[in-house]
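anyone seen this seq b4? input:
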Amino acid sequence: MADTSFIKDLPSGPLDAYRDRATFDWKKMKLFFEDPDLLKVKMRVWETLEKDPIFQKPKTELNSEEMKRRAALQLRKYCQLSFVTPEMANLPYKRKTRYMMTINEALAVTFPDVSVKHAIGLGLFKNTLTTLGTERHKKVLDAAWSGKILSCLALTEIAHGSNTKQMRTTATFDKNSQEFVINTPDFEAAKCWVGNLGKTCTIALLFAQLHTNGQCYGLHAFVVPIRDPKTLLPYPGIVVGDMGEKIGLHGIDNGFIMFQNYRIPRENLLNRTGDVTPEGEYKSSFSEPGKILGAALENLSTGRVGIMQESANNLVCAVTIAVRYAVVRKQFAKSPDERSELPIIEYQLHQWRVFPYVAAAAVLKIFVAGFTDEYLATVQKSTSATQIEDLTSVVAEIHAVVSSAKPLITWVCRDAVQECREACGGHGFLKSARFGDLRGAIDPCVTYEGDNNVLGQQASNWLVRQWEKMRGEEELCSPLGTCAFFQHSGEILKRKFGLERVQEVLDLNCE
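predicted toks r here
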């Protein structure tokens, strides 16, 4: 039997009448949704932040610049609290990454701006160096684990976001100096919307088109110093600035950057998928250039999984607030003479509005937890395998799942936050109700780390390829079995809905 003693009892209050009617142990149910060890990690994060003055909510609204300054101070203090220690760098990939995701989940629930800064500047940076870098990048990786540097991921350009193949920032190898020369051909090729770049980061993980010996070999990742860590002034050859005020997540200093003949050492290329010799010869472990790009960008799926986690947690927050409000808010009586009004949770209309999102929160929370384990296990195999191509089918299927799940979860969360806000009436419009903050946190999630509509097309493309294989009597490339139902398509298409009573619909054994 699971130990639930570490979970604190809920305070007594107006919700007791409904809680007493529960036919299950809510603490045991909590452990159904949360791994006990990971939940203890989250609780330790929350209890620590609650005691620290820098994490106390300000009494008045701060302007955008002050929010950025405050988020930077909170991130620095968060790193000083040593939830992640340098020793963790030596742990197996899956274990350390899952732990990092867990502490970032805890941070995201309370301080989404700081969470994003941490995820981009430390989490994704370290993950990318681990999966795409080699031993020659260990010094930078150690500095990241020690909290000595703050990074950013510079991918999106002014004129190109989803169409990564057409990005135009270049990194041209100079054999004479053994350096890559980085250039931004024009403003449309400027890197933009880069979190942490506007004011604070000192190093960028830059994606640029690699050129050597007069030939382009596609998009590759480079470690690029941006600012002097002592003065935070940009190095010569760089134009960098802040994107300006946004409609949410004001604590993140999203920035833009342009390069003019800016030089970095040859070793700054993340060379696990492809490398350039001192003579300028390009060498790759892949036979097709498209696979090089895929391997480089597939690393970003970790960020998408993180967004799925954050969105599922925000969905839980929204429905929790709405349901609790529905219990204490009373409206109307059964008759004019009756003085006792009913809690609005008793009305079918209100249940119809809120309860489907409660169900969605439960389902998506379980799915994200299970899929995260599957995803991290696959990445761990890819980082230890001698031939990455051996995992092509699994990686392609995981990419398809992420490309469908990230849009689904973020859209559901976005709609749920709005419905829950409306279900709380005018009181839901108060800042203290939290729906404004939740809406500001979820809104950009439908766009960054892959536009939802474009990701949906990527998932459907994979499904269409599997369907064509099945129709052509080829073997499905679905190691995880997500489209195994294609094999029974003939039988499925012949079936008709034959249930006649509500009870039959509720019975899981009815076919």
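The mean pLDDT is 89. Residues 485 and 491 are 10 Å apart (CA to CA). kinda curious what u guys think
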